[in-house]
Amino acid sequence: MQSKRLPILLFSILVIATCVLLFSTHSKKQNYILEGQVAFPEGSAVSLDVYVTQERGFPPDFSALHRVRTVQEGRFTTEYYAEVNVPIHFYVKKDGFTPVRHTLYPRSENGKFQRL
User: Fold this and answer.
1) Are 45 and 32 in contact (CB under 8 A)?
2) Fewest beta carbons within 10 Å, which of 29, 63, 93, 104?
3) Cα-Cα end-to-end distance for the chain
4) Residue-range domain boundaries for the chain
């Protein structure tokens, strides 16, 4: 009787270890390449700060967020490591103005890549 329990116990340990290994190696995060253009009617859109986050609420301190600056014609490009299928929030900030928020909703397609 004891000899039958040992293979079952070893098989159970093997299955649990395999599941843990699979779940730990398949990350729920992904690199995004974010590109955009900021329109600023009151002046030049060059050198505006664009902050990127996945936090829901309005951030009390922008210094902890991922930051990129706009270049010619208000364009920006950055790489951002983020959770899959979670909204990405952009805050455009210029001194003396209230930050403006824009949200993107990425979705998974076939579990292989993200599309914005």
Assistant:
1) no
2) 63
3) 58
4) 29-115
